[in-house]
Amino acid sequence: MLTVTEAQERVSHLVESAKKAGADTSDALYSGGVSTEVQIRLGELEDVERSEGEEIGLRFFIGKRSASVSSSDLSDDALAVLVERAAAMAREAPEDQYAGLAPQEMLFRGELPQLDIDDGGEGDPQALRDRALAAEDAARAVKGVTNSEGGGASASRSIMALATSHGFCSGYQATSYGCSASVIAGEGSGMQRDYAYRTARHLADLDSPESIGTRAGERTVGRLNPAKLPSGTIPVVFDPRVSGGLLGHLVGAITGSSITRGTSFLRDSLEEQIFASGITILDDPLRTRGLRSRPFDGEGLRVSDRKIIDDGMLTGWLLDSASARQLGLQPTGNAKRGIGGPPGAGTTNLHLEAGSLSRDELIADITRGVLVTELIGQGVNPVTGDYSRGASGFLIENGAIGAPVAEITIAGNLKDMFRELVPANDLEFIHGINAPTVRIEGLTVAGA
């Protein structure tokens, strides 16, 4: 795998080669990574995987015609062929009036921000084995756990570099560590399964494997002997394990591609109140040690924190350059891309800001409701906002969390759900998308 400096040199050279081959403009993206993962089951080593790969991609523009090509062979001969193929494809491609690089005047300039997303560590297989074993042992030690799906630990390093023909060239690297455990409790038809995991940029920030394993075991045992839940319209409380998914549906509805195609249930909601007053949802690509932090976006534009929802109001769309041109707007620094095609748009470290109530206070007046800890299926219509998901969790009765429930369905419409959403004060920054416990009134719950 190349170093960051070598990767920058390679993409810069590829852009220069494209220019010599007749490109009016072009950009090149390098992505490389190495990872090691260890899996343990029932105290025995089950699998050790190490992967290392790198790929480079080129977008080649001739006027409004373009082609995207990629290669995992980074030799000079292979890249020369790649440029020739891109040029031939671009000449035959249909015109796209919105295609092109990001505006030159908006490109990131200067020294990269210090995000501290690389701790310099490597994935030692023995250390990973010990971590995975400790997580599984802790999970299996919880009374009531009867079997195990395993414990896992991983470590990885990734490198990304981007160059454009109109003056941008930079790159960065990051590390990532993970640990997980998944176990089973009960016997026969009464068996239940649950899990716990954590990821972090720095190994020092990763929860101990013992705490991860214990959490997995306790969650699993807590699901035994689920009660029946009558169908009805009741308050639903989303645990932080699943509440971030509601933000994911918001993101999908406000990306440029959804708006330009007219396939979003929020397409007519720009600068309108879609959440209650006081609700703030913020995207922060520059968070120190953030799981999705980055110094520039997928087109080389400057990034900054942004309130997507401010006091309940939708402030704007998430736009790459192509969708911005189509809408007559400016790109927002939210471009995301892979090697093999044009950029799209998305978020980085996204979170719903905490409310003022504790979790206990949030549920104190609920006579009968449900706390959802797991969601199943993908029953969301992005055009209408209709929402229907399988779920499991716990009864809420007279302001207290009670017996587990399983095989239920919750349904509503995301527009209504967003307006009714009330956050608790238990926000933690442990995932790429984070939200505290949230309460939503008036959802339809169908029991088993």
UniProtKB/TrEMBL annotation:
Top-level lineage group: Bacteria
Pfam families assigned to the protein according to its UniProt record, in alphabetical order: PmbA_TldD_1st, PmbA_TldD_2nd, PmbA_TldD_3rd
Metalloprotease TldD/E C-terminal domain sequence ranges: 231-447
Cross-referenced Gene3D superfamilies: PmbA/TldD superfamily
GO cellular component: cytosol
GO BP annotations, alphabetical order: proteolysis
Residue stretches making up the Metalloprotease TldD/E N-terminal domain: 27-90
Alphabetized GO MF terms: metallopeptidase activity
Domain Metalloprotease TldD/E central: start-end pairs: 125-224
Family named by the database record: Belongs to the peptidase U62 family.
Protein's recorded name: TldD/PmbA family protein
